[in-house]
Amino acid sequence: MTTKGRKEFMKLLCHVLGMITNKISKFITFFCNKDVLLTRSMKVTPNLYGNLVANTAAGIAGGTGVMPGGNVGADHAIFEQGASAGNVGNEKLVVEKKANPVALLLSSAMMLRHLQFPSFADRLETAVKRVIAEGRYRTKDLGGQSTTQEVVDAVIAVLD
């Protein structure tokens, strides 16, 4: 690639990134002004923009460890941690048992709701929120020292 070609490419890249940043800013401003919880809003975007929005929302919500996610198609659905995270594929967190299970628990609630089990989804969400609010069982990324299993056990203990 020529120097001129590189300059043109960088100019285009900066323009695209500026547009994306502007859209995310408008998205956040819209939801903040409406006082709407991002976890309750439905986002329908192409994958690239969905990832950018999910990661931004995760930062606002408290980190990638608390952001649920779901990908729903016409015939299939998958539910997973909703934002890219440093703990995805981080074997050290698994070995040390310090990975935050909240995102996967909330994603499980999304799956239950998708499968038409809203009462079970509500119970799981309520239990997770209660454990986090009580503050006794939190992983390091949420300001605590609990292990993954301790958080899961605490959620199970408060399920009604």
Automatic annotation (TrEMBL):
Protein's UniProt name: Isopropylmalate dehydrogenase-like domain-containing protein
Family: Belongs to the isocitrate and isopropylmalate dehydrogenases family.
Gene3D superfamilies, alphabetized: Isopropylmalate Dehydrogenase
Any one cellular-component term (Gene Ontology): mitochondrion
InterPro entries: IsoPropMal-DH-like_dom
One function term, GO molecular function aspect: isocitrate dehydrogenase (NAD+) activity
Gene Ontology biological-process entries: isocitrate metabolic process; tricarboxylic acid cycle
Pfam families named in the record: Iso_dh
Ranges in a coiled coil: none
Limits of the Isopropylmalate dehydrogenase-like domain: 1-155
